[in-house]
Amino acid sequence: DKVVIGGAGLWTPEHVVTNEELVTSLNAYADQFNDRYADQIASGEKEAVRKSDVDFIVKASGIKQRHVYIKDGILDIDRMKPRIPERKDDELSHQAEVALHAARRALEAARKSPDDIDAVIVSCAYTERYYPAIAIEVQHALGIEGYAFDMLVACSAATFALHRAWEMVRTGSARSVLVINPELVTPQINFCDRDSHFIFGDVATAMVVERADDARGEDQFEILGAQAHTLYSNNIRSNFGYLSRGYDADPFAVDKLFHQEGRSVFKEVCPMAAQHLTDHLALHGFTPGQVRRWWLHQANINMNQLIAKRLLGSLPDNDVAPTVLDQYANTASAGSIIAFNRYHRDMKAGDIGMLCSFGAGYSIGSLLLRKT
Ligand code: CO8
After folding, report:
1. Domain for residue 16, yes or no?
2. Is residue 251 predicted with pLDDT exceeding 90?
3. Number of domains in the chain
4. Which of 268, 337, 350, 361 is close enough to 205 for a disulfide, judged by CB 3.0 to 4.6 Å?
5. Mutate to test the pocket of ligand 1, among 17, 20, 50, 264 (most ligand atoms within 8 A of CB)
6. Is the pLDDT of residue 310 over 90?
């Protein structure tokens, strides 16, 4: 039986941080730190904070700005992290709140009510707590009968969750699944580090995966296949976790925040992703040239161009492989889903599209779609 993506939703936080604002703040922080610790820096006891540069950021990544859930605190050089008010147990959690914004939009696009949904998956790079699951909180808030669970697969959380949802609907364990990606990543960014302070932004995305027979949305995409691949790598890592308490670790130590060997990631992941996509298409008798649209993971413009060039032999335009990272930056697993949300309404029945994520783990996930 056919399974479709029956509707998609995107919630964009209202606050924007530009490259200029980020660089001004980091450079002022660097001056303050380097002045304060001039003696220790001179003796080699401490490392100087290195300054950032707007032109470097645009050239190295394609990122021009990012949306953030909470802007307050991020640019304050005496803080360098968002100021997030803690919520009580009986209040809606931050992540459930943003998940609900995207979920309601996906339900509306699919013309579904919560009664039509049998399962909820919240899948993203971080959840704000381990239990009760954010997905169960969202299920409760929407009044959905059935079951819900959280999944963590870093950059590939969205594609891996869609893969699960596809299987759940195919096997009949759910008629329709709401997959949500509330990516609140800014609290894990080291805003004092020029190598990574510019990379990420916050967002929430959602999709309804359901039986084609039940689908009522205006734009439906049949899932022709889903593939996944993982390979262990330490090149993108965060050591923050529940054991940190036992280590007596400083939760803001550099290794507890997002850090990466960006060059190695670039070199290792691009060929893996290109090969994965070629193999996935071949499995279904397609070649890259037959794909009308590529909704690629949004980590770095140069990375996407290299992958697309390997696949197609030349650089595709924005219509074939749309970029959203100039406005959103890297939003962990949600990047390709943002691209889908913004670039699918013009597609015609029969058009083929490929949704693909790649990144931390390493993890690569892809779904081959056909407009119905
Ligand atoms: N301003 C000025 N100079 C800079 C800056 C800056 N902001 N940043 C770095 N430099 C310097 C470096 O320090 C280096 O100087 P030196 O040679 O003196 O050390 C020089 O510029 C060159 O640096 P790089 O070689 O690192 O520069 P690149 O051209 O490789 O660009 C990138 C860096 C943009 C990071 C690039 O390597 C890249 O994008 N790689 C791939 C990254 C990637 O895809 N990562 C995956 C991200 S993980 C993910 O998607 C989800 C993870 C889970 C979510 C986490 C949320 C917090």
Report:
1. no
2. no
3. 1
4. 337
5. 50
6. yes
Nearest CA to 371 among 215, 179, 140, 183? 215
Q: What percent of the chain has pLDDT over 70?
A: 100
226 is written with which tokens? 């889903």
Residue numbers of the domain that contains 281: 221-371
Distance CA 9, CA 207 (A): 6
Q: What residues form DSSP beta bridges with 17? A: 66
Test site for ligand 1: of 265, 272, 326, 338, most ligand atoms within 8 A of the Cβ: 265
End-to-end CA distance of the chain: 14
Residue with CA at minimum distance from ligand 1 atom 15: 195
Has residue 261 been placed in a domain? Answer: yes
- pLDDT-derived band at 93 (thresholds 50, 70, 90) equals very high
Query: Parallel, antiparallel, or unpaired for β 119-124 and 176-183?
Result: parallel
CA of 255 to the centre of ligand 1 (A): 16
Chain CA centroid to CA 277, Å: 19
Name the percent of the chain lying above pLDDT 90. 97
Lowest-confidence region among 46-60, 241-255, 295-309: 241-255
Specify if 245 maps to a domain: yes
Instruction: Please indicate, yes or no, if residue 179 is contained in any of the structural domains.
Output: no
Cβ–Cβ < 8 Å for 122, 99: yes
CA torsion sign for 326, 332, 335, 336 is: positive
Which structure tokens are listed for 158? 């969205």
pLDDT band at 253 (very low <50, low <70, confident <90, very high): confident
What is the 237 CA–ligand 1 centroid distance (Å)?
A: 14
- DSSP character at residue 188: G
Residue 249 confidence class, pLDDT cut points 50, 70, 90? confident
CATH number of the domain encompassing residue 317: 3.40.47.10
User: Which residues, other chains included, contact 142 with Cβ-Cβ below 8 Å and sequence gap of 6+?
Assistant: 100, 103, 114, 117, 120, 178
Q: Examine the residue annotation and report whether 270 is marked as an active-site residue of this protein.
A: no
| Strand 293-296, strand 352-359: pairing | parallel
Report the alpha-carbon distance of residue 241 to residue 155 in Å, rounded. 18
